[in-house]
Predict the structure.
Amino acid sequence: MDRLQAMETYVRVIEAGSFKKAADTMHVLPSTVTRTIKELESHLGARLLNRTTRALSMTDAGLRYYDSCKAILSDVRVAESMVAQETGTLQGAIRVGTTPSLAKNFLIPALPSFRERYPGITLDFQLDDATVDIIQRGLDCVIRAGEPSPSRLVARRIGEFHWYVCASPNYLQSHGEPTTLDALKQHVAVGYIHSQTGRSTRWIFQQGTNVVTMPMSEHVSVDDTDAYVAAGVAGLGLIRVASYMVRQHIADGRLVRLLADIEAPPEPVSILYPHSRHLAPTIRAFIDWCSEIMGNAASDW
């Protein structure tokens, strides 16, 4: 039995939540995964998993072994990456979680420069607007907008963007243009459903040292950023949206920016990753690159 491979298989099973899903990610048969776990338990002389027809759960020994496997496998990857770094060629795979809008507007367009700089690093992007469990999904890092919630993850701020209030010319022709915060009460907004709360996100503005939250009437709500912008372009209501998502729409005349003289608190963008005694050079290189491209794009946000 290849013990490192067995450890990797065990970690994949835990993070995937089933033998079949783990087998799919490893491109092997489920029977191969089952056999490996049985051999591993036999070698250790302990049951690692409680199996039912519906779910898997770790035993106490399995939980401790999982934590140890993660640390060992991380050290192996770091050792391999450090050797590659000394030879001038970083190699490895990185799994990144982020939102479709950040990927489409920043990461994907800039990827040619990353590939040119690090041809030995492969990237697997998992795109989702919803907050995900980085450990459960087996991700190396996630890139998210908003103030990070307290967690065991390391959070490094790599940029920030501003909020724009916009509407289509057709909407403004029918409903008029709000010029004050108080005037927003007479208008309809498109709602954007927050993945964590299940409720529409709040509209927040800054007046001097005061932060003001404006309640908005809504007739249509969505939970996807592209659909949200499309609803604004279609004239279904006002939208409050990340500046980088609508600059081209504004330039092309499909949207009009409103209340430009009223500030909103900037929204931070951070990259989060698990604590580790040694951060793999490949992941560090990706984090530094993200900080670089986000910093270069700051003037366009």
Q: What stands out?
A: The chain has a mean pLDDT of 86. The longest strand covers residues 153-161.
